[in-house]
Amino acid sequence: MMEEQVILVNEKDEPIGLMPKMEAHEKAVLHRAFSVFIMNAKGETMLQQRAADKYHSPLLWTNTCCSHQRDGETNLEAGKRRLQEEMGFEVELKELFSFIYKAPFDNGLTEHELDHVMMGYYNEEPQINPEEVQDWKWMKPEAIKSDISNNPDSYTEWFKIIFDKFYDYISKTDSE
Predict the structure, then answer these.
(1) pLDDT digits (tens, 9 = 90+) for 8-35
(2) In whole angstroms, how far apart are CA 122 and each of 65, 125, 127, 150?
(3) Which of 123, 16, 35 is nearest to 75 (CA)?
C-alpha cells in the first residue's frame, strides 16, 4: 500500500504539491490538516485516547478525531471520512476556523499544519476503531481546560494548542 500523501500548502492554504505524510512530518513542511470536535446536548466534548500502537503520541488524549485531507477531498468530506474511520459514526460538520501551528515531538517528527477546525453534534456512544483509538470520554470544556493545566503530559501537543482556540471560539459564541 502506498504511503498516505499530505497536501502541501502555503500560508494562504493554496496547494503547492503532495508529499508522503512521514516525510512531511520529518521535514516539518507546512501541510493541510483538520481537527474535529464533537459536542453533545449537555455541552460536553468527546475526547479520544490515541491507540497504544500510534507512531507518535500513543495513549495521549486528544480531540474527537484529526487527520489530513486527501488530494481532491474537501475539508468537510475529510472530517466525515475520518470520524467514521476512527469513531464509527457520521454527523454533519461545520467548519469553524483555521490557523497554522507547529508542534515538535520527542521522536524527531514535527506537525506543521494549516489546521481546519470543525465541529459537530452527537449524543450516542461511538463505535471506536481499536487500531486508532484506545478509549474515549465526554468532558465539559471547562474540565478539559483545567485538566490540561494540571496534567499537560496526558494530552497531545496539537490538542493543547487547538483546544485553546476552540475554547475561545465556543466561549465567544456562547456569550453572543
Answers:
(1) 999 999 999 999 999 999 999 999 999 9
(2) 14, 9, 13, 28
(3) 35
Q: DSSP strand E in 21-87: where?
A: 31-39, 45-50, 61-62, 65-67
Residue 66 appears among annotated catalytic residues: yes
Cβ contacts of 96-102, under 8 Å, gap ≥ 24: 96/166, 96/169, 97/165, 97/169, 98/13, 99/165, 100/11, 100/30, 101/158, 101/161, 101/162, 102/28
- Element containing residue 133 per DSSP (H, E): strand 133-139
Q: What is the pLDDT of residues 113-133, one digit of tens each?
A: 999 999 999 999 999 999 999
Q: Which of 66, 86, 111, 157 is catalytic?
A: 66
158, 66 Cβ separation under 8 angstroms: yes
C-alpha to C-alpha distances, 97 to 58, 100, 114, 115, 118, nearest whole angstrom: 27, 11, 10, 8, 7
Where do we find the cell 484529526? 66
**And the C-alpha cell for 67?**
487527520
CA nearest 81: which of 40, 133, 89, 49? 89
Residue among 86, 111, 113, 157 flagged as catalytic: 113
For the whole model, what pTM was predicted?
0.93
